[in-house]
# Entry
Amino acid sequence: MKYSRIVGTGRYLPEKVLTNFDLEKMVDTSDEWIRTRTGVERRHAVADDQTTSDMCVEAAKVAIEDAGIDVTDIDMVLVGTTTPDLIFPNAATLVQHRLGIPPCPAIGMEAACTSFIYALTTADKFIKAGEAKCALVIGAECITKIVDWTDRNTCVLFGDGAGAVIVKPSDEAGILATHLGADGQYKELLYYPVGASKELHKAGTDEAAITMVGNEVFKVAVKTLGNVATEVLHKAGVEQSELDWLIPHQANLRIIQATAKRLNLPMEKVILTVQDHGNTSAASVPMALDVGRRDGRVKPGQLVLMEAFGGGFTWGSVLMRM
Ligand code: UT7
# Structure
């Protein structure tokens, strides 16, 4: 066994849809501004009583069926999220129990929008080390629960959802290269100001909301996403012209267009979901992968580059053959 390989995918989107026109009624914004500045047209939002692990379970069921495996085959669960149900147990442990997966390592990965790429990279290393034979890897987010719905700078951007993949060992490629990074010097540009050991008393108040200097984040995102893409291509000895698909984090259509341009990739080779999902943070890449596979665009054997960028800043990329 030389590689780990994604053998099944699934996604879950909450029922409730908020269009740009709905947001026009909530804050001083317009469909035109949101579409031209971000590419977002609509986003899904969880119900009040719905949690991240609820969405994880639904996305995982679809991925398990797609992979043709049984829950008892799974021997590792990783959930990348910034919005876990609880501080502990972590979301992966909740998912393990709720799906009836036998006791196994259950890891919560917290790297903002890059959380799924961090989780998938970790699964890849466990599988290659022979420590896992079937990993359930999920990126999920209830990001609408931590947004200030009176702040037009942020509330128009985000949406909820979950994307899941099943990863198994394989003699054929498979994940070819991964690259992760982080630099905490940018913390002030994008963060959530409440945590378990700091400012917990602000939870549930107006002060608990995503804080972002959007245009500064934008600049670093464009530069970094170009670099993380070339980094994995270089590691794997693959030319960018060989790529079949780019599946980027879906934060902003303009960031995605700039990244594609840097890679000399036509937009026809980019899977886009930002218009329908908004920025779903950790869920955006696995959901976009699932969309591309299920509508028949992303085919077995094709070369796919996934990448993400988020608060911290954190970043990461995975190059793989489907
Ligand atoms: O997922 C993790 C990483 N996150 C990202 O990658 C997000 C990166 N940043 C962005 O995508 C963009 O910076 C935003 C979409 C957040 C903002 O777009 P922008 O083109 O950078 O706009 P801006 O922040 O420079 O603001 C331009 C103007 C401002 O008005 P003034 O000061 O020029 O009069 C804002 O107040 O747009 C105004 N504005 C809005 N107007 C209508 C900001 N938000 C809105 C809004 N509706 N929702």
Observations:
- Residues 87 and 196 are 7 Å apart (CA to CA).
- The first strand starts at residue 3 and ends at 12.
- The pocket of oxa(dethia)-CoA is lined by residues 29, 33-34, 37-38, 113, 152-153, 156, 214-215, 217-218, 221, 251-252, 255, 279, 309-310 (CB under 6 Å).
- The chain has ten helices and 13 strands.
